[in-house]
Each structure stands twice: as C-alpha cells, then as structure tokens.
Amino acid sequence: MADYAALASEWEGILERRPALREPLGFWTAIIGGWMRWKSTELGSLERTDDACRDSWERGVPLLAACPPALEREPIEELLGPVIERLSADGADAAGALQQLAVAWDDGLVGPDVLLPQSGRDAAAVLQERFGLATRLGAFLAPAALRPALETWFERTRALPDGIWSRGACPWCGGFAFYGDLIEDGRRRLSCLLCGGAWLAPRLRCPFCETWDSKDLVRLLAEGADEGYFIEACRACLGYVKGVDRRQRWNAGSPLTEDWASPHLDLHASREGYWRPTPCLVHLAPSGDDVR
Ligand SMILES: [Zn+2]
Ligand SMILES: [Zn+2]
Q1: Ligand 1 centroid vs 151 CA: distance in angstroms?
Q2: How far away, in angstroms, is 116 Cα from ligand 1 center?
Q3: Are residues 193 and 276 in the same domain?
C-alpha cells in the first residue's frame, strides 16, 4: 500500500512553509488524513502478468476495464462520508444532490462501483446524470474515496513499457490526468489523482481531447516566485493541466502536493477561460471569488 504517512509529512512541510495557506488547504489535509486511516481487510492487489497487461495497453484499454477490483463498501464509505458532508456546504443544490446519493448508497442502490470510470466516462459525469450533482463537485468524490483502494489494487502492475500507451487517460484506471510535469530528461509525465499512476506522454498532445494540433495548445508560464511552474491548456477543448519543469525546480514535491498547493494557478487558468475535469479548490468557489 502507498505510503500516506510520507505524503502527510510532505504536505505538512508545505503548510509550514506557507502558513497563510493552512486554512484554505485544510480541505486536502482532511483527505490525506482519511487515506492514512484507511484499511481494507479483503482487497488484495491485482495479479496480472506483464504480457496480459501489455495486451490491454496495446489495445488502448486501461487495466481497470479489463480487471475491475471488488471494492468493499465500508472502507470506501468511511472516506466518502466526510467529503459528502463538506461538499454539501456548497449550497442547496449540492446538498440536495448529495443527499440523494447518500440515500441511494444507504439503500444499496449504488455502491463503490458508481465512483469508478466506466466506458470512458468518469464518476462525475455519471453522478451528474443520476443525481444532478454538478461535475465540478462530483469530481472530488472518486479520488477522495477510492485512491487507497485503487493504489493497492494496481501496485503490482505499475511496470508500463515505454511507448506502449499513447492515450491521455490513465493506463491503469482510465481516469483523467491531473498533473503534467516535465521530468529531468525533458519528457512529459502525466499523473492520475484517482489511482496514483504516472506515465510518459507526448508533449504536444492534449490529454483530454487528444488533439495533436500544436496551434491549439498554449502554455501559460508562471513568473517570479512561481518560475518553473506552468499551465498547459488546449484551445480546442479548453482543458488544462498544471505542471512543473523539474529541470528548473529540482526540489519540487510530488505531483499531488504540487497540484494541491497551487490553487492560485487554477484561479488564473479559470480566469483565462480554461477548465479541468479533476478536482481543485477553485471549483468550490463558483462565484469566482478568490480561493484564499
Ligand atoms: Zn489512474
Ligand atoms: Zn483538448
């Protein structure tokens, strides 16, 4: 299982360096706390040969679609409950939709599977269709509730051969890329918030609509204290991912902490008219108010 204690201590280090962010970033601190406490007695790791994994990837099929995990309700519910509660504060519409979800869950009409990406659709799309929950909010639920389970499920199948996977979605779970950094040799690496996977991807391709048309792709660079950080956006679908150039920022943190600790860059991207399908704190401030 992933080392959430190490993640928590990396996160704490960020909060200590930037005390003004401690309160607004507390949303994420609570999520990491839930992951640290997570326990599943039944779920093991997927056992699948390298050849069988390769076969799925060569066909462009994420492993989750070929081998879905049998998720236990209770440990997932432990993580889902608190985040439903926090998102309910967004307003009456959100509270009503989340209440419907909670009732359907309690009645056994839906379970953990509703949070898994299915046939190219993520949970946020399914939850919007079924319960009327805004996708900007629905996007928080699956990563918060499923990350430890999926990270456990895929931990023995992380050896992705170079060049085999060219899609923008995660080769393990099929989720959206949430961060795209440039690693030490200049190659682009995308990361998945939902399952913790990371994979190399072409630099000049949108991970969402998969356009190759370079005139559609724009790079918004951060300056000053944020030098080395950037936002890669697509004019075709208006999606964006943030990233960091690790050749300039050798001491940058993990994709997850870098992403969560930079809501001001999301605010900038959203003011430029771009969106992200993965959760960020700006999505909790729909009126356009500053996140701070
Ligand atoms: Zn994934
Ligand atoms: Zn695009």
Answers
A1: 9
A2: 10
A3: yes
Are residues 127 and 67 both part of a single domain?
yes
pLDDT single digits (tens) 56-95: 999 999 999 999 999 999 999 999 999 999 999 999 999 9
Is 200 in contact with 187 (CB distance < 8 Å)?
yes
> Band of the pLDDT at 287, cuts 50, 70, 90?
low
Token pair in block for residue 103: 């009732």
Distance 192 CA to ligand 1 centre (A): 5
Average pLDDT, the chain: 93
Indicate whether 43 and 141 sit together in one domain.
yes
Q: Are 45 and 122 part of one and the same domain? A: yes
216: domain CATH number?
3.90.1670.10
Q: Give the ligand whose atoms come closest to the C-alpha of residue 232.
A: 2
Q: Do 218 and 148 share a domain, yes or no?
A: no
Taking alpha carbons only, the member of 230, 234, 287 closest to residue 259 is 230
Domain extent, residue 188, equals 177-284
pLDDT digits (tens, 9 = 90+) for 164-210: 998 999 999 999 999 999 999 999 999 999 999 999 998 889 999 99
If you search the block for the tokens 């389970």, which residue do you land on?
Answer: 149
Distance 210 CA to ligand 1 centre (A): 17
Q: Which amino acid, one-letter code, is at 34?
A: G
Question: What is the average per-residue pLDDT within 246-257?
Answer: 95
Is 266 among the domain residues?
Answer: yes
Domain boundary among 88, 123, 154: 154
Predicted model pTM? 0.94
